[in-house]
Design goal:
Largest sheet: 7 strands, mixed
Distance between the termini: 39 Å
Radius of gyration: 28 Å
Structural class: alpha/beta
CATH architecture of the largest domain: 3-Layer(aba) Sandwich
Strand order of the largest sheet: 5-13-12-11-10-6-9
CATH superfamily of the largest domain: Type I PLP-dependent aspartate aminotransferase-like (Major domain)
Number of domains: 3
Bound molecules: pyridoxal-5'-phosphate
Helix content: 40-55%
Strand content: 15-25%
Number of strands: 18
CATH class of the largest domain: Alpha Beta
Number of helices: 20
Length: about 475
């Protein structure tokens, strides 16, 4: 054992190696020393535990170099989305268009007029850049943008109804994505939650009976990720507006995804757009930027100027404000909605939702042909029909007819293959359908085919003949 300890390469000797020196120049001496020390400690421990029976200097140096490089790789990386879920919350929700990102990167590396009024040469407001376009495409009188929709709901309630009652239907007390729970957000905003109706049915009279002089707001929440079906009733926005008018109480609606265009035209269930919601008299609506809108993470607050003005004065806004990257990307996203013909070309989420089933099939055929070109008896593929999902808590009941490529590899169980694809240099996240790994082609991008093909080439190359 003492021989083993003695043969462990000395720190000085490791540091002399050219490859180690080049890492020191690149990443800094302290960092490299720490990785080496840690690795040598591990080796000593393993000798003590009798796990190691010989010392191979070259192997030790290679492992150290590998660890240094690995530590320096970004932990946040791109992945291939083979799940068929378009707005996949765990995979970053909506992706941003390559075309629009080029326009942003130019500004991102320059000074901008973020808070500078170019007409007067005086201080301007960061929100000014996006208010006009939001007004134009939603019909709102005024608007504001904050960090996300959760922040939008919090800020709106806190400003308009803090210390007062907020009336919500019991059928709308939802939890979204594990951490956003309506009752808790209402509590956090300093409002007093007044639940009305029952889980499946709420009537106009339930709201009417709950209103009193301490009512600060009525809020309607889009239940987004679930639907109550069967013996149900909720109250129409138009009807709530009559109470809101009679009693002079603001009517707020959290739309969740927030649609700008009507996806009913593309075969999905009817959902009100932001404009339709405002037309029905809702005073303030809030919605997410990175769900159906297909833009950056943010929360849009839009509605009557009287209320938006008040919200803009809130001190809390300073803590929830968005950065210039968000403002630029949201502006370009919203502008894309001005031309519906080119919209799908600019917003990938919209393209994926509105494209023909045939387009997905073409992608599946292309991928399958690429895999066939590997020309290996170890892998077989089969085109299959799938049901893809919009995701992001939108349209929980609507599936999109889609296509996928089923991978049949004799040497691997579906679990092993799924794991190997997930641990690829560029991770590939797949579905498992009836015991087979399937790459759903709904959310596949042009650049993904080669990534998948070379990953599978490597994986079958590693298996035994
Ligand atoms: C998604 C969602 C939220 C939260 O939006 P974030 O942008 O994720 O903060 C709030 N309310 C509803 C109804 C939602 O669907």
């Amino acid at each position: 054992m003492s021989d083993l300890y003695r043969n462990i390469p000395k720190m000085d000797k490791i540091l002399e190696k050219d490859e180690v020196q080049s890492r020191i120049n690149k990443y800094g001496r302290d960092f490299v020393l720490e990785v080496i020390r840690e690795h040598l400690d591990t080796i000593r421990e393993n000798i003590t535990k009798n796990i190691i029976s010989r010392i191979d200097e070259e192997e030790i140096i290679n492992t150290i170099l590998y660890k240094i490089d690995k530590e320096n790789k970004s932990k946040f990386k791109k992945v291939v989305n083979g799940t068929g879920v378009i707005i996949h919350t765990n995979l970053g929700r909506s992706i941003f268009s390559e075309e629009l990102s080029k326009e942003i990167s130019e500004n991102l590396c320059s000074y901008t007029n973020l808070e500078y009024n170019l007409d007067t040469g005086e201080r301007g407001h960061r929100y000014d850049h996006i208010v006009d376009i939001i007004k134009k495409i939603t019909g709102a009188e005024d608007a504001l943008v904050v960090n996300n929709n959760a922040a939008a709901v919090l800020l709106t309630l806190k400003t308009l109804a803090s210390g007062k009652d907020v009336i919500v239907s019991r059928g709308e007390l939802v939890e979204i994505g594990g951490s956003f729970r309506i009752p808790e957000v209402i509590k956090e905003s300093g409002c007093n939650l007044i639940e009305v109706g029952t889980t499946n049915k709420t009537h106009l009279k339930d709201y009417r009976n709950a209103v009193n002089e301490n009512t600060g707001a009525i809020i309607k929440i889009h239940t987004s990720n679930y639907k109550i079906v069967g013996f149900t009733q909720d109250v129409d926005t138009n009807e709530l507006k009559t109470i809101s008018n009679e009693r002079n109480i603001p009517l707020i609606e959290d739309l969740g995804s927030g649609m700008i265009i009507d996806l009913y035209d593309y075969g999905l269930n009817k959902e009100p757009t932001v404009r339709e919601t405002l037309d029905r008299g809702v005073d303030v609506v809030t919605f997410s930027g990175d769900k159906l809108l297909g833009g950056p993470q943010c929360g849009v607050i839009a509605g009557k100027s009287k209320f938006i003005k008040e919200i803009k004065k809130s001190q809390l806004l300073r803590a929830l404000r968005v950065d210039k990257f968000t403002i630029m990307s949201l502006e370009l996203t919203l502008k894309a909605y001005q031309n519906l013909d080119t919209l799908p070309l600019k917003i990938p989420t919209i393209r994926m939702i509105t494209e023909e089933e045939e387009d997905v099939k073409i992608r599946a055929e292309k991928l399958s042909n690429k895999l066939k070109s590997l020309n290996s008896y170890k892998i077989n593929t089969e085109l299959i029909r799938t049901k893809s999902m919009i995701g992001g808590g939108a349209y929980p009941l609507d599936n999109l007819d889609s296509w996928g490529v089923k991978l049949i590899l004799k040497e691997f169980s579906e679990k092993d293959l799924e794991e190997k694809l997930r641990s690829n240099e560029i991770p590939i996240i797949v579905r498992i359908i009836e015991g087979f790994v399937v790459i759903d082609c709904k959310a596949l991008l042009e650049k993904d085919y080669d990534i998948i093909t070379s990953a599978l080439k490597r994986i079958i190359g590693e298996s035994n003949d």
